[in-house]
Design goal:
- The protein contains 14 helices and 13 strands.
- It has 403 residues and is α/β, with parallel strands linked by helices.
- It has a single domain, classed as TIM Barrel, CATH 3.20.20.
- The strands form 4 sheets. The protein has a 6-stranded parallel β-sheet.
- Strand 12 and strand 13 form a beta hairpin.
- The longest helix is centred in the last third of the chain and has 23 residues.
- The chain is globular and about 55 Å long.
- Keywords: 4Fe-4S, Iron, Iron-sulfur, Metal-binding, S-adenosyl-L-methionine.
- Its cofactor is [4Fe-4S] cluster.
Length: 403
Amino acid sequence: MAKPTGAACNLDCTYCFFLSKELLHDRDSQQMSEATLERYIADFLGSQPDGDVTLEWQGGEPTMRGLPFFRRAVEIAEQYRWPAQSVRHSLQTNGTLIDDQWARFLAGNGFLVGLSMDGPAEDHDAYRVNRAGRPTHDQVLRGWKILQAHGVQTNILCTVHAANADHPLEVYRYFRDELGATYLQFIPIVERTSRKLLPLADAGWHEPGEARPFYTQKGRHVTERSVGPEQWGRFMSTIWDEWVVRDVGRVYVQHFDTALGNAMGQYSMCVHSPTCGDAVAVLHNGDVYACDHYVEPDYVRGNIAEVSLRDVLDSTEQRQFGTDKATTLSQQCQDCPVKWACWGGCPKDRFVPVDGGRHQQNYLCAGYFEFFSHITPDIARMTQLIRMGRPAAAIMKLPTTRR
């Protein structure tokens, strides 16, 4: 994924781990130049096989880079694409800067837009605030409605945290029934920190007028905003129970699709794949990092002005980064009956010592176990249906104790 504005953002979401990454660079110059843009797109398209290719734009807040930048990105992509390549773009945004001009451009160029929203206003506004500490739900909702009015392909990215974790059906039904959203991602908030930094982290990571400390994946404590393991498991299981009896094939939930794919040996989500390391992050200045969650000095892999993305992925360091996800699994994970679905979760969340300190267990382990165990019987029925040539949605016509 590319970050054309680096960590710069017009919001100040309390739980955002990425805002402090601006300390890596000059805060006032976090804009990708046209030269870096062209190098990135040429390299990215040149390293891909024929067929569908997606350029992913994230932040910070990428719309702060302005429409002219993205118009130029579309032009450059058309210039460098291979004859048999079909290039698409996806944009992850907080939605507050979306207007009719933006929406016309996004619709006209086939962008897939992910909108960050955490549910109804009371849930969303708990932590998703602007630089003045004011709520943002109404602005985000306005952006969503503009995108819908122009027919932009959209999905919702909802983080799950202490404020909304106990309201799974309210959150799900809000997106499905009130917004009409049919593609949803739920991302657990795990703010990892040290005992020393915990009071500052719980207070919002910075004193008034002071910069946030640089965030790194270290420590064995979590903030009070973080979702609890059991909360996460209940949240996803509760939504599954509503979805599986009425919304299969109509509403697409990333974790549900991922579990079904895993059951059939098709891995699509790095968090729940055996290995990782393919989703590198390219910052505004061309620096390439091992992962969006590891934008730290120890994980920089070079700059696209000097090294190709293919060379980064083929490097010893990056290969090791990816395979470590599998080779460092605890014995508990190795023996777990839902390993097929979980694969130990994201390495960033593995910080609970087990096996005499030889391995680190995922903080969310109990929740993953509850959720994946809960859905295993239904997943087995869905895979059986697919192998019989029937759609997974046919499960809604089968007898169930949930009705």
